Automatic annotation (TrEMBL):
Record keyword Transferase present: yes
Family per similarity comment: Belongs to the GST superfamily. Kappa family.
Transferase found in the keyword field: yes
Pfam families tied to this protein: DSBA
GO terms under cellular component: mitochondrion; peroxisome
Reaction(s) the record says it catalyses: RX + glutathione = an S-substituted glutathione + a halide anion + H(+)
EC number: 2.5.1.18
Organism superkingdom: Eukaryota
Top EC class of this enzyme: transferase
This protein's UniProt keywords: Transferase
This protein's name: Glutathione S-transferase kappa 1
Any one GO molecular-function label of the UniProt entry: glutathione transferase activity
Amino acid sequence: FQVLCRYQHIWNIDLRFRPAFLGGIMQATELFLKGNKPPALLPKRAEYMLKDIKRMAKYYQVPVQISEDDFQRILGTSSLGAMRFITAIDMTQPRYLEPLSREFWIRFWSQHEDISQPENMLAVARQAGLSSEIAQKLLEIISSPAVKNRLKETTEEAMKYGAFGMPAVVAHFKGEPHLFFGSDRLELLGSVIGEKWLGPVPS
């Protein structure tokens, strides 16, 4: 997310964020992938991930703060409400989609806040620049059929492109979609679309 934001005005891309529900993707693809489980549930993979996330945080210069105990917090916290809130923003105030997403990310991955709580969603909205009145209205519609259906549609669309987890990036290039999974595929993404990788923090 952060690196794509850095590159959106350097590479010749039209960057569009599409809120999707990871839990729905994991549940749906489990049938096809014979037990699609989060990597953190595999002991040796979790041990490696902990080290790798710290290395990647330093390399990409993003404020990820994570420990072994955090895996249970991450797996035990529902992001559905937050994703519906982001979806509602996308439907009504799309110019706030990027700052709102960034603020949710920072609070969850760096400050370890429970983003499923309504009061925290409102705090995120205020930090992203929304008025208290608009934030409250958004909170009131996150359970509406329109918002639920929109999130379901974008989640299904992600799976149509082959997504089996997050982050998933779909690059539409020369009339063909290209799926990239994971945050370590951005150099490859640049190669496919004919753009030069200038490192994690391009000048």
